[in-house]
Amino acid sequence: MRQFSTLLLLVVSIHISYSQTRTNISLPNTSDLQKKWVDSIYNTMSFEEKVGQLFMVAAYSNKNESHYKDIDDLIENYKVGGLIFFQGGPIRQAQLTNRYQQKSKVPLFIGIDAEWGLSMRLDSTYRYPWNMTLGAIQDYNLIREMGKQMGRQSKRMGIHFNFAPVVDINTNPKNPIIGNRSFGEDKVNVTNAAEALMLGLQSEGVFATAKHFPGHGDTETDSHQTLPLVNFDRERLDNVELYPYKELIKNGLASIMVAHLNVPSLEPREGYPTSISYDVVTKLLKKELKFNGLIFTDALNMKGASNFKEPGAIDLEAFLAGNDVLLFAENVPVAIEKFKQAQADGSLTEARLAESVKKILAYKYKAGLNKYKPIELENLYNDLNAPENDALNYLLYENALTLLKNKDKIIPVKQLEKERVAYVKLGDAEASDFFKKLNDYTEVTEIKGTNLDSVLVDLKNYTKVIIGFHKADGAWKNHNLSFKEQMWISKIAKQNKVILTFFTKPYSLLKISNFENIEAVLLAYQNNYFGQTVAAEAIFGGIGCKGKIPVSINDIFYTNDGLTTTEMNRLSFASPENVGMNSKTLQKIDSIAAYAIAHEMTPGIQVLIARKGKVIFQKSYGYHTYEDLVPVKNTDLYDVASLTKILATLPNVMVQFDKGKLKLDTKLSTMLPSFKNSNKANVKLVDMLTHQARFQAWIPFYKATLDSLGQPSDKYYRKTYSKEFSIQVSENLFLRKDYQDSIVKIIADSELLPRVQYKYSDFSFILMKEYLERTTGKKLDKLAKDNFYSILGAYRMTYNPLHKFDVSEIVPTEKDNYYRYTTLQGYVHDMGAAMQGGIGGHAGIFANSMDVAKMMQMYLQKGKYGGHQFFTEATFNKFNTCYYCKDENRRGVGFDKPQLGQSGPTCGCVSMTSFGHTGFTGTMAWADPEQEIVYVFLSNRTYPEAKVNTLSRENIRENIQEVIYQSIEQ
Question: In the chain, which residues have pLDDT < 50?
């Protein structure tokens, strides 16, 4: 059910106005039209204009007008050929690009370092994983799709060159500048990943630039600060560092960036940078490797180059070495003068100049700059941050997640009912998403403290401890474990079963010399929402692990190590686009919810949607009350009213049916012998649960316990607890303990309706509670918990929530002015259920949307969830059958079903195999096997009073359900 193509749902067309003509780019062709355009431009240029084309200068969109005018000057007076944009924002950069392009005689090249997306340089743009994270992914098609998305975003911004991919093979973990920017230390994996990214970028009409030639992976210094030494012989360079370039060149690489490195085996002059070495750029790259694409220098302001020669001189030297484009020149006017001098003394020939300038112009033609169009600013932000980006990011992080150790197959955690799980956070960065997602699977307690001994004492009460190491998610941040953190891990692991999860670069593991006492080591690579989400999912079996570590860690873990696990049919998380739904359509739900709250149909709402086993929408709206003091959170508990029937009573009935203790034609007198002499003795189970047993719709049991003034009678109630008055119906009101039997007797003595017909009644489920408790010897709340909730990890689904949760976590249901005369918050709204101690077969459950969804997903999977079979598929199918549709009774056995005519519980757009229930407090849970959808709607529409059900009259629940089905991509 949950297997679907990783790319089919991602390659969704993004209809945006591209800045240039969209073409599939690799190397410039030699068409007559291209040659004609190139020659027409070149032949009109002065010497200075030709030289100007060689420069790509640094531009920023976060600086002031003075800077912008400096760029204007370089364009108008020195005819520079391109700009490399650095820090700023997308709208500002687009506006500046349009401004600069308008001023340029020949359209400008626009380039950017966007190795993990435009967000490497621009705020308000999308961020993809680092290359090191991508290096763990085994499905290169995902990386190619990432390249395509990055290409579309660059194209939308009028960018022609993305200075990516980094193809440095990071064989030195001490490398201060490459590290996470590398795909890893295995040359084949680096090459395959880089090629995938390159092909994706170039398929969208954006030039890829492999860097940093001839290889910056095994250095211990930063070329931004000094000239790094690469002291390998030629054989090693050929075999390792140059390998990716050879392969990418074969497959159409558009351009290469040459680094500032000291490589004695390639350049005999001592300390001579590769970026200005003729032997490296021309002899090796152009002639030996036969690369005829565009060649960029790395930024010429970097100390690895600028320490060697003065501005202007370094530019000329780089050009004479064979480079085509001079990046981040520090002084263009001085450089142009140097070129003039070189022309005068004969060291710079017309042929050499024409070679690069015509190549640059050919690339401009290929980029569509012969038909330049300005960037369309309208909808730019939304186009750059399309929902499809999130869908891909989920898959990228999911596929990268790497399990390095898994003693006794501790991951995924299986029998939740037997576990007590603790979480210990290490590191100084944010971890809230991880902790929240862990708690979406089961109750996980965070153990905090600064004293290790105290923490160790607290942890003795837990069966498993999840340690998360969280550091700031920056490519160049320090991710090393401190000595204290190493000690904490060692001590905790010695005493407990530990799942150690790293949200850092893999080199963080280097500080741990011994993993012997650690049961599981999970590498999530990055400390962000996606990394934290997929890690929690994998720990509890929502997804499987499939990544391989791209670098080696001491002599413990080796490149391409990684264990696989399988998912356990538990809900996981994704974007709507991952499951064939449209995020923009689903945004209509926000408006419907806002409308309902604004018109006081309910103070607050929870909505959850899952499809194909993945939660793709989970939001809370409004407040606990109309006083707007407490916002609704996803974890808050609602009184779900009649959803109790299918969340507590029905599943336990199905267990008894599965064991052969019940049949659909079992009579009530068999289930409850006390009914043997009643008028209901021969009523069958199937008729009870399809609401055609001729039962009365409702009896207000509580009214018989009120005095003549409508107040709780002293005959039945006390304001304090005692053995005789032990049934708590509200905060300060206790019912006589023997009254529960009275409810059953009242039902037994009640009249039957005159004929068989569909008539909704709570009686059936009140009686089924009685049957279950007498048969099993357990109270229904314990049955529900032991048989279902504990196994499902639905710890926020419970009767009598105040026994477990703080009142602030429970949404109030009503200001009762007719029975209990108090605000009901944590006490069941239904009066009959309250008179049964809050534990009714028909009402009494409190839950949040996530835990309701777990139960509905279990039904959707026909009795399976989390590796547990609760009842057989055959049993589910029998209960999800409409036996009396021919008699205009839509009901299944316990389940509500879609309407047969115009009106009913659903939008009318669900399949007839779908099932669910609604609740009086304004709740709904519905599942559709054909579309694999679970929909949960929770509200307290009964607050402050329940009299007028505008929520139902205005079809709020149904309208949201309709939007869900509208969002399904056909």
Answer: 1-24
